[in-house]
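Project standup — Tuesday

K.O.: blocked on the structure for the chain from last sprint. Re-posting the sequence here as requested.
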Amino acid sequence: MKYEGDIIRPPSEAGSLLLQITVGCSHNQCTFCRAYKKKRFRIKEFEEIEEDIREAAEYPYPDKVFLCDGDALIVPQKKLVRILESIRKYLKGVERVGVYANAKSILKKTPDELAQLRELGLGIVYFGLETGSDELLIQIHKGADSRKMVAAGRRIKEAGIALSVTVLLGIGGTEKSIDHARETAKVLSEIDPDYVGALTVMVIPGTPLYEQYAAGTYRRPEPYDLIRELGCMIAGSNFTKCLFTSNHASNYLAVRARLPQDKERVLAAIDGVLRSGGRGMLRPDYLRRL
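H.V.: unblocked you, prediction finished:
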């Protein structure tokens, strides 16, 4: 397998075969992210991708494949179809293919094109919402407003593909913490995803967000304010059937809840943590990592 640069995948794809079909991220402008800053975006040639697929077929491989890098759904439909057909041809036991996507790459696909990808094995899309606040979406350079975010998320759902949405605790800073949580809850409710993963923003040197932090124009909420933000987001969200987690290593408090049935339980647990007032119930900083 030929990989270029660091390879990033969702935590839930830890056991998947990682197939790099793009290098970098076609958007690559988010103020909080430096994951792909050293990579110039390109789509690999099909022959190179198929060579990796055929190599993988020579060894034991898992039943899931994840297509890297940052938003591999941006690959033109004809080429993406060829890739999925090649996976189906050579990797007979693969049951699900996953991919990162953003609003632009999703909305470039028609409903019929997404249905075709689903038929060829695309089973889950990981979608970075980050926030439902239009003001913050502009500030962090996500490249889409909340309406486009909802439209993109709904398009994946309507295609019958599982949707996992990522949100960022703390991205609104101290001033917009609760507004961020409330607006994000509204957008999540409209999208109604299958999964939500809440991460805590990490202020990373070399990013515009770090420059704002160093200049004092961005102040990250304190740990208990981040947990309050999490509780507000869960309280304001209404889902049909969703697994909501905050068990990523960046978070101070791990939550795993099936909503709506676990809503009262998890909110009571969060309230108990907030009432405790001590850091003993929180993940220590030295264990928090991206």
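K.O.: great, moving the ticket to review. The chain is about 40% helix and 15% strand. The beta strands are 17-20, 22-23, 42-43, 64-68, 96-101, 122-130, 162-169, 195-200, 242-245, 256-259.
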